Amino acid sequence: MELQQMRYVVAVAEECSFTRAAERCFVVQSALSHQIKALETELGLTLFARTSRRVDLTAAGEAFLSAARMSLEAADRAVADAAAATGQVRGTLTLGVIPTVTGLDLPAALGDYRRAHPAVRIRLHSGGSDEFIAATAEGSVDVAVLGLPEPTSAKGVATRELARERLVAVVSATHRLADRRRLKLADLADETFVDFPAGTPGRAPSDRAFQAAGVHREVAFEAMSPTLILDLVRHNLAVSLLSPFVLAGDADLRTIPVSDGPSRIEYLAWSSFNPSPAAQAFLDQVRPR
């Protein structure tokens, strides 16, 4: 069994196509198919159920895929650790990033990192803080940017604070409150809100602040995308509470400080258990905005 055969299996499983997998691996399809067939023969198992239009993993293939991924990760880590012993940084850096990163100029940080460590493959994933805390703790994500309400802490991972900020009310330029210089949560009690989905760390600061103030609010719209949230506000369908840094001089929107409004903390998070050389290099480089 060869590592390349495992890479082919992973590619076919992820692409659900021998043709696309071959293109991804930069080999002709016949060669990739031959290697997978040879592997199946060696194992005495069928890894894929094939038809002319469809490719699915068998039960044996599902079990093999998980172990194959771990084996490939272990092989990559072995090469990276050996290179690190000679002062080189290689391997893969997997980053998990929330949609509302404000405490870090991520494109600039990744640009600096790529120039300093060109041999490292960078994988970037967008998602929520909860999933990235779990993924970082289990090792499938190397480093993550999290946004959490005070006084929540990220359990199972090491963290470094990047930013601490108070959220502001965001309204359209034609909203009745657009000319106000400061608000209280009670001033927003009768408004329709757009916010992140209930139960997510992005939503928690606002929910906690309204509960502490004894103010009820109606969240009619839920979205994970800040762009969609701002579009709904721009069209006067709702108001929101967001980081003041999410907006970039939009003439159709207004931001208003909220004296008793919620705060959030942005963290850089990583597994403290034996971080890879690529992850450690990123942690050593990154500084808050």
Automatic annotation (TrEMBL):
Keywords: DNA-binding, Transcription, Transcription regulation. GO terms for cellular component: protein-DNA complex. GO terms for molecular function: DNA binding; DNA-binding transcription factor activity. InterPro entries: LysR_HTH_N (IPR000847), LysR_subst-bd (IPR005119), WH-like_DNA-bd_sf (IPR036388), WH_DNA-bd_sf (IPR036390). Residues 1-58 form the HTH lysR-type domain. CDD domains: PBP2_LTTR_like_3 (cd08436). The keyword DNA-binding applies. Belongs to the LysR transcriptional regulatory family. This is LysR family transcriptional regulator. The lineage of its organism: Bacteria, Bacillati, Actinomycetota, Actinomycetes, Pseudonocardiales.
